[in-house]
Design a protein that fits this description.
The protein is of the alpha/beta class. The chain has helices at 25-35, 49-61, 82-96, 113-125, 139-147, 167-175, 196-205, 209-219, 231-238, 247-254, 269-277, 287-294, and strands at residues 3-5, 11-13, 17-18, 39-41, 70-75, 103-106, 132-135, 155-159, 179-183, 222-224.
Length: 309
Amino acid sequence: MHYFTLNNGIKIPALGLGTFGLENAQQCVEDALELGYRLIDTAQKYANEKDIGRALKVALNSGLKREEHFIQSKLWISHTDKKGALKAFDESLKNLGVDYLDCYMLHYPFNDLYAAYKELSKLYKKGLIKALGVSNFYPDKLADLCIFNEIKPCLNQLELHPFYQRKKELSFNHNLNIAVQAWCPLAQGKDIFTNKILSKIAKKHSKTVAQIILRWHIENKIIVIPKSTNKQRLRENIDIFDFSLDESDLSEISRLDTNKSLFLELFGYERIKWLEGFKSLASVNFNAVNALASKNIELNNTQSKGGGW
């Protein structure tokens, strides 16, 4: 496994398991840990922290050590305030069955995020959080948080994949020495596994298209958390450290960028109101958010069942 070093000196695996919307999350995490995954991503609103906690217990009982794992979760917007942050964090620790988190993130840049971040900073100083992070933060919010807080975020989790490369934002984060972690690095399989350019590069390296995409992230210094319920795909996803992409590969992939999100744009009252209102992220369809704004998008269930994000 390759590791990146965060701005506070903490090491983080370059590749981990995303668990958003996973069916049978406990078994998936058990399989991933058995295969050598050590980074596990979850969130308060994924409604699977208890399942992940049970999987971690199995791993620890088998001889693996807690310090070998990097467990990260996120604070939901309804709790992003002074009182809610501490309560939610305690619940996540209890659900996961751990006494500290390797990274804890603000899930979205909404509600009283500054008060919440200051409370989480206190937990960081106590060692209960090893690295503070954010998710879905645009440059202005990120810069504001960095400038007016003692502790800079270590990580920003963003939608990022070959179809949405966010080159300027990636550079902005890296210039602040903030690591970028890609959620949905495989674009939820939307037209990406059959892409001719990626298929050609995959054939050239005798790899799968998914492996090419994940390797592209790593070579751009982007941490990845693909998800899958299929053990063979889990095995393939982690098997990306025995080859490199050349300059022609990187150049061709660069041209795939559409500069458009496939799922979610945060701007707009209706979108934010929708995020605030639903009860659980476990079965959310992000296309519904865009439909609220455009009124003419046919809603489809975009959740990946067995492939990967």
